[in-house]
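Hi there,

I know you've been waiting on this one. I reran it after we fixed the sequence typo, so this is the corrected version. Both the input and the resulting structure follow.
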Amino acid sequence: MILRVQKALEERKWRWQSRTVREEAPVSDVGNLIGESPAMLRVKELAAGVAPMRTTVFIQGETGTGKEVVARAIHHNSPRKDYPLVTVNCAAIPATLMEDEFFGHEKGAFTDAQQLRVGRFEQANRGTLFLDEIGTMPLDLQGKLLRVLQERECQRIGGTQTIRLDVRIIAATNANLDEKVKSGAFREDLYYRLHVFPILLPPLRERREDIPWLVSHLLQKLCAREGLPFKQITQEAMKGLVQYDWPGNVRQLENALEMAMILAGEREYLLPENFPAIYRSPDSSESLPTVTIPPEGANFHLLVSQFEKALLLEGLKRADGKRSRAATLLNMKRTTLLEKLKKLQALPL
């Protein structure tokens, strides 16, 4: 009876604390930059200060720290907010297509050029061009980008017309470009053209005090997206989230919360067991399946494929066949899940 009373009091206390976090969550004047830690206050200060300018911004931070969120905040608080913000992930574009992606082409410029194509620079004219993962750009294209930044003009592939540009550049990277410059993988002159106003985004492990605010914000966002009543989180579960190092930063936190919401079902509160990746002990024998190798040996690749297929099918079963939810349960992208299912569907269990 005493334990029940204590549990009820603790739940009531957490209900009040969770409501307080939602009501007092800081409303940023520079977009969705959530957090009140000294490091994030500095990021907000820098973003707010540079937003009204035409200045080139260079954002550096680990994967998942929110570089694109900062870029959007700067754009939407700038005089260019009514014009396009065009995002280019340099790491996702094959090197052979990158020039066409940036500058476009005229009809008939090459065999498959059936119609005129407007490049990303033209699309972003009078607005902002966000170059994500700029450190992956091939050297030959770096020279062409440098010329565009210097001359503020470009030409489509196969064209003769010079197109004047009024584009604000925001570049971002999770790499150490200083090292790339020293090794010759990144042009020094381009580096200094981009590195005009640097903003360094701290990893989540260096601003743990922001995690409760982020959890509240992300839960509201996820619940609104899925049309669910707002979910809360127990004090014990929140303690674990704050103590965890989050190598994938805010993106990993959002994925963990989405998975926890699915595992919680209709329950209002998220519990520690709803965060298996965080609360699982890596040294626990339960984290490893039992393996038996017969005297004659085993087919390693076949066994791995069979186990992977069983894991994927179990994920689909728990998600009632919904592939997006299964991908979230397995902590992978939906496209990765589809690729693995396609590859493994012919293998026996």
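Quick highlight: Residues 7-28 have pLDDT under 50 and may be disordered.

Best,
R. S.
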